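ARCHIVE CARD
Drawer: 12
Card no.: 0347
Subject: one protein chain, sequence and derived structure
Cross-reference: see card 0346
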Amino acid sequence: MQSWWMQLGADGAQLEQRDVAVPQPAAGQLLVRVHAASLNRGEFVAGHGLHGTPGSWKAIGGECAGEVAALGSGVDGFHVGQRVMGRCSGAFAEYALLDAPEVMLVPANLSWHEAASIPLTWLVTFDMLVLQGALKSGEWLLVNGVSSGVGVAALQLGVALGARVIGTSTSQDKLDRLQPLGLAHGLCTRAADFAPRVLELTANHGADLVINAVGGSVFAEDVCCMAFEGRLAMVGYVDGMLHGELDLEALHAKRLKLFGVSNKLRSKAQKAAAVPRFVAEILPRFASGALRPLVDEVADFTRLPQAKARMEAGAHVGKIVLEVAP
């Protein structure tokens, strides 16, 4: 089968398409014939630690959708031919192995491309907004980099939960495109200068929950515009800045909560623990059409390097998806 591999070093990422054997499912795994797999920026960022040992090659791709091709021993509740989706390693391939606790059935109304955009991105968003962020209806949600895959999902889920969403982006055109999804206010900026505007828009209340998918360059500004008992989710640092200044007075006086959103150090059981609740609370919203992933582009399987370049250039709004099996 065809599979994409990556080596990430000091000079950046090297991608290589390889012909490898079809893997066989071990106990508790499903072999899935991949129809689509989506790109996630974190996999290509060295600081996220998702690429394996520096200098080594790794099969890449973190989420996919496809048909069940075979079942390992001990797998119950699934059968060959079912449409499924899930997080995994090596999703950019014709076949991928998924651990059974990570597998979800694809709602009938979703395409392969849309389904491939859900498992990793939306579970991360569910973690940020619901499990750790405790977002409530009527609260203010600030999303840095709102046009990214995670940013758009945070916008959509935030609106679905009844929040009022403010988003930042370097492109006014992207902000305009997100208004139909419920973006209340779009702030066009590439600088850490948005706190005064956020406070103005919220009548000096501030943001109850902040999603920082940009990095250290906006961290201090995020803290400045947080509300009393506000929460801040650190989910990425595409700006490459791993440090930010923390206003301890604000942290103390406003009783702020700062938390990270990463699966890097979590066990498989810890990562999969949220899946049943996501299936119960969020998946029905996709099945009903109330939520629908925003797919920006579908790229041919052979064009992963070009799709990666487009993502890293910030030219997309939503998810970029590889079509593996048309």
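Annotation on reverse: Residues 125 and 154 are 6 Å apart (CA to CA). The chain is about 25% helix and 30% strand.
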